[in-house]
Amino acid sequence: MRILFIGDSIIRGTVGVDWVNDLANAFPEWQITNQGVNGDTLVKINQRLEAIFQKGGSYDYIVFNGGANDLLIPHLPSKGFLFKTAHQHLIKQGYAPRRSMREFEEAYSQTVDLIRSYTNARIIILTVGRMNEMPSFHLNEKREEVNEVIRKIARRDQCMVADAGKRMDEYLGNKETKDYFLENFFRVSWLDRWQCALFKRADSLSEERGLLLTIDGLHLNSIGGAIFRDEVEKYLRRVLKEQIYPGSSLARNSS
């Protein structure tokens, strides 16, 4: 199977854990291409996706994750001068977030329509993970609205939903965690990335900060990464069973 992963830093995996690479290592017979880019909004992801198809990219499955940065970017100015400067830079560079639910639904629907206009690939869309592990954090209310839009689009357009956002919420439940969300500009923009890439410190960063699924309230540690990986893997495994046992109840009932 040829599988394209497209999206933001959760797909890219250079901050936190690279769960897409873990999936590729577990299934070397699959041809997995990672086209995640840190910080990308829906607008930027759609631009890159169209460029990939115009260059002749062909895939059996496309796994799409986006929307977190559309929520995050408008929040950046409230976090201080350096984050505000980063916000201004992103806007100038065309990382325009979709602010209303109507705009978000239109942009997300455009992604699905774009894929369908170029390919017959099956589409797996991921819901947005927890933003700050505390459920009371104000972005999580809007995140759940976004995830409801994602589920609605999936039902309407017959996509598969890898509901990692819901699984993260269920895992955290009433567990004790910390109110921590991208607390230091230099850690967010540089230091955490290099500690994860060079020294594989995602889990130790989580432990130091009292977090359970993320290293900074957004990017995933090994447990959070496993949630995303497992949600996608169950659909890909189903395809393998369909290929081995076409039309059987075993294939239909797998999850």
TrEMBL record:
It comes from the Bacteria. This is SGNH/GDSL hydrolase family protein. It comes from Terrimonas ginsenosidimutans. Pfam families: Lipase_GDSL_2 (PF13472). CDD domains: SGNH_hydrolase. InterPro entries: Ester_Hydrolysis_Enzymes, SGNH_hydro, SGNH_hydro_sf. Signal peptide: none annotated. Keywords: Hydrolase. One of its GO terms (molecular function) is hydrolase activity. Residues 5-174 form the SGNH hydrolase-type esterase domain. Coiled coil: none annotated.
